[in-house]
Amino acid sequence: MKAIKFLVLLFCLSITSAYAQQDTATLNTIINKTKRLNEEQPQEKVYLHFDKPYYAVADTIWFKAYVTTQGTIPSPLSKIVYVEVYNAVDSLVQTLKLPVKNSVAYGNIPLSMNSYKQGNYYVRAYTLWMLNFDADYFFSKNILIGEAIDKQLLTNISYTNTATEKAIKTTARIQFKDTSKKPLANKTVNWRMFHNYDVFSSGRGTTDANGYLMVTITSKPGDPIKKGTLVADVSVADKELASASFNIRQNDNGIDFQLFPEGGELIVGIPNQVGFKAVLPNGLGTDVKGNIFDEQNNEVGNFASSFAGIGSFFMTPEAGKSYKLKYTSKDGLSKTIDLPKAVEGITLQASNPTVADVISLRILASTTFFEANKEKSFYLVGQNSNNVAYGAQMSLKNQVITVKIPKQNFPSGIAQLTLFNEKSEPVSERLVFVLHKDAVNLTLKADLPAYKPRQKVKISLDTKSKGQPVAGDFSVSVTDESKVPSDENNETTILSSLLLTSDLKGYVEKPNYYFNKPDEKKLGELDKLMLTQGYRRFAYKEILAGNYPKIFLLPEQGISISGTLRDLTGMPIKKGSLRMMVTGKPISAQTITSNVGVFSFKDLVFPDSSQVVISARYNPNYNNLMIMLDGSPSAARGTNMHAPDEIENIDTAMASYLTNSQRQYRFMRTLKTVEIKGGAIKRPSHADHPALSGLSQIPDRFIDGARLEGCNVLLECVKMQVPSLTYDFQEQKFYITRDYNAGTRVPVAIFLNGMFVDVNAINTIGATDVESIEVFLNDPLGTVDRMHGTRGVLVINTKKIPKGEKISKQDFLDMLPKKYEVKYTPQGYSKEREFYAPKYAPNAPITNNDLRTTIYWNPKLVTDEKGNVSFEFNNADGKGNYRVVVEGIDKNGNVGRNVMRYVVK
User: Which of 17, 216, 445, 486 is 20 to 30 A away from residue 2, measured at CA?
Assistant: First the structure.
């Protein structure tokens, strides 16, 4: 860790430089309390490097997880990382639990046809330690998944929103084509609009000669459709329907124009830089320009946005005057707003030229504030990821103070500079981005200038830090760019994630734009982003008052199972013996309970979906004992902070990729078209039970039991899979989400195989035994609601048990669950797989097509002390540019990335 710089600044001229003298007790207090926060609650980050930016159903997602602390230093804390996949409506699809070794983990996600369909998904990753802090700092990335196997329709949608009196009217224009790209003309389309997990409106129409259909939807007054789903069923042939779904977001087409005075406030009588951000309702920035006027309508300045609707302007407000700003968007929308009122005070201003090796700061005070606070002490503290890297004391002898801070004090990333008054109160703050271009440099070199299809390729990686060789841990992906085109500005990279977005709250548009061939212009735009983006990992006021965030979870060191052993009266059993076994595997452990009956099996290693047995039968009178397991902490359901990046017209965006996937997976399509004749097997449903006969034949939401594959705790999976219901932890009941949000507290009725049960019964059955889950938001006849005082019904149907043979009474008793023994399926480690890369001999005969999109994936690329490593692989059949991406961290915690292309002719 770099030494903290302590400076005492005295000023003799109106503008002067700082020089060192001695530290003070007040400055030490600020620094030490911040240092304590970092020592007791170090921040962890997770970054995932994926093999490519998007996928098709039946593909496998390959990734490597990097776990860091203190910014980008490999973390020694957590030994487990969690990776979750969510769909566009924030329903959890899959969770992985991965072991972390040497601060990295390796994972893969097969995109099975049962669990995934075409749509927008996002991946979230975190450690258990990170649950102590804000979920905004979890790793998150959008993943686009297309469909090539079951594809029946190609669609394209565009829609506009028009504000009416107290409502919003959406007019959608949808084109339908078959898989040969022929428009589906004169076809009947039945459509349904879902809002708040209920059918909001529906209708029927016929496509025109070019396959287009117009759909109009008007919201209820004051209740726009923020996250709706439009489902369209097209009659493609006699008695054959094909379905497509579209996300609909209603808004008033307005612009959210936000102002951010540098340092926090607009100060009277001094030049102020004011950052601004113009954001559309979809979350994306938009170009604007405009002017600033005083109260006499005199123009005092003008401005124009640069990248992503972000920009800044300078003005010197006069005391007692008010100012207005008028902006005009590129679409011609104009609006006038009031500027914040200027106040007497002091502010922090920064200049961060890329060519300089220092951050230049100016501390400016208004005349009245200066006269009232002359000679008083102020303190300047700079930190990065809770590590204090700079501290200085100054006496306010002049209205303008200049400070130059060497950039070498800070690692690459966001530096937070805060000015405190003599009462240790933060009065001004500025974020500055520091980028050390020589921190780590990665050089890729191919052994030939060009290659042929299937030819062996050898690439060497040379790693240097500040010109010296350095060892590091890296991952490499090679893709066929003709099949996998990408927008590098919109990618999530190790640079944009660990150095930028992991420390910022909220959405950042195209974060890798600032790191993709950075120049003076881009880094200047990055400085404007620092003016306008939120940064609040902690609040200085709380820290200096001694109010540190509460910690309730420690870093995981491995899988653990804990609980309490009690007798049937509830009294804990001390010194009790317990044995843990994994069914079908040579894994076992023993432990003894504490004086209060608590036991814990630590550092366990077993694969996911394993059955674990914990038994107390080795104790005297074991028939009178019972085991009570502790629950496992888990993150709250996620929401997609990158929703503005969602792609609506996936068929168009992934056209080249999906065309290749259709050829690649054609054998799967052939298998699916095989017709097997025979009697249909009736599946269990609510209709089998008289008590539920009054419900609709079609549930509002149906979840096939196959979607619960890999689920360990059924109740947790139900909570994630059914967003139309909200679970109240205190009441331990489900409620219809829209009613719960409106304040209504009438619980949902739960039925298990036709029997009315409470929520605890859900965890008495395993996820593998579930045939289906049905959700009914309405009870048309009211038979269930009136009888049980409920609203809505949750039905769980288990698989039918095959008819068996008669058994003895003892055999039956042996089948009953035993209180002294627990059998359950906790989440274990996901299986690690090796990426398959075929090897071809020179001039070997070609017997099949090689249609790979990911040509090579290696997450275990480790350079030696000389900074060198090489890898080799064979090309596929595709010709054109192949893209090589290497990312990783050197042993000193410097992050690096390099992209190289080579040609296959």
Answer: 17
